[in-house]
Specification:
One of its GO terms (biological process) is nucleobase-containing small molecule interconversion. Its main location: cytoplasm. With about 230 residues, the chain is α/β, with parallel strands linked by helices. The chain has one domain: Rossmann fold, CATH 3.40.50.300. The protein has a 5-stranded parallel sheet, sandwiched between helices. The protein has a 3-stranded antiparallel sheet with strand order 3-4-5, covered by helices on one side. β4 and β5 form a beta hairpin. It is globular. The protein starts with 6 loop residues before the first strand and ends with a helix. It binds 2'-deoxycytidine-5'-monophosphate. 2'-deoxycytidine-5'-monophosphate binds next to α2, α4 and α8.
Amino acid sequence: MESATPVIVAIDGPAGTGKSSTSKAVAAQLGLSYLDTGAQYRAITWWMVNNGIDVDDPSAVAAAAGKPEIVSGTDPEGPTITVDGVDVSGPIRTQEVSSKVSAVSAVPEVRARITELQRSIAASAASGIVVEGRDIGTTVLPDADLKIFLTASPEARAARRSGELKGADVHSTREALIKRDEADSSRKTSPLAKADDAVEVDTTELTLAQVIECVVTLVEEKRAGK
Ligand code: DC
């Protein structure tokens, strides 16, 4: 029988490590909710771009940070994301949003707003939740039951991402990923970082199925020990 206590799983790591695929599959297998926090930062970035906000002006971004209403659907079989009622699941994956999301997500007012949203979603997940991002184990949910930090070589990450982008050039994908990771890791407010108590899983040589199995086992061990 499943444990009655909600289990909170934080999965962090850079782009292209298999975070989303792993997190969704683990949540689906274990009957948990799923939250893609990168999608929330992409959604607020999309809104800024669409509303003519200069994303390179942190004070303009900060002043607008409270305006869009972002709603995340947390079913791992079909996660959704809307901004002011508009489905933005497609538009948030464009190159334009990808190239601007690091600047927007470095603004403290944006992080405060999105972090609050993430905490309230996690608190209301009845059976528990898998939350994926960059600062979940360190800042958003420091008391998570299990923290995972996924890594992979830049080559493996670029190859996976260009596969997802249907044949995008591996070299330019690699450069763009490295640039985004550097920006995300070096920002002042809650950078991409491994929590001291996170389990690091290097996925370079692993298949997706192996990574999923590894994380499911870790969650089950945690639950059994509760
Ligand atoms: O996971 P992703 O590549 O869709 O995330 C997009 C961007 O959002 C990422 O480059 C940095 C930002 N992000 C963040 O700052 N904090 C998070 N918890 C998740 C994502």
